[in-house]
Amino acid sequence: MSVAMFRRRFSEHVDAGQLSSYRKAMGPRIERIEALCDTVSEIADDLRRKIREPDEIDEHLAKAESELDEIALSVAEQLAPEPLRALHAEFDANLERALRGVVTIERGCGLTRIPHATIYDDEPQAYWKHGHLNVVHAQMRMREIAEVLFAWKAGAPAEASVTARIHQIGA
To answer: Dihedral sign, CA of 95, 100, 103, 109?
Structure first.
């Protein structure tokens, strides 16, 4: 008894118009995400160094969170060309990580409002540190992914790993 096995061949063909419109839609979002992450990480760093008070930055954090949340929804709804979908999903996951970092920083600020709490307590400092690291690390990874998303050419691997970077530079 013989069984015929058919493998579906993955097509590297991508419509140039679809790729162009995807990049056109993602470009401004990525720029705005970068600016928001810079602002939030600066705020968190100022809180950790006791340069600013939590009450001073409440509005800035709330605004950054709502903008990032809006962008995250539009990025999640954006359909990427087939070969870039895994990278797009990873970009979206890192955007969510940056959002969690903002929420963590806000929680640290909320802890300073508890009676008898100060900004010198260890717990808010830990929240600010973890939130800051989440935002910075997510931002770094999103930069790497965005670089690949915008430089990718049909037929090339859509990969943003260390191994792919080593192969790119020919080391």
So the answer is: negative
For 55-91, the pLDDT digits (tens) are 899 899 999 999 999 999 999 999 999 999 999 999 9
Whether residue 30 contacts residue 142, with contact meaning beta carbons closer than 8 Å, is answered with yes
CA separation for the pair 46, 53 (Å, rounded): 8
Domain extent at residue 54: 18-169
Cα separations in angstroms, 77 against 16, 25, 92, 153? 20, 11, 10, 23
CATH number of the domain to which 121 belongs: 1.20.120
Measured on CA atoms in the order 111, 112, 118, 121, is the torsion positive or negative? positive
* Residue listed under structure tokens 């979908």: 85
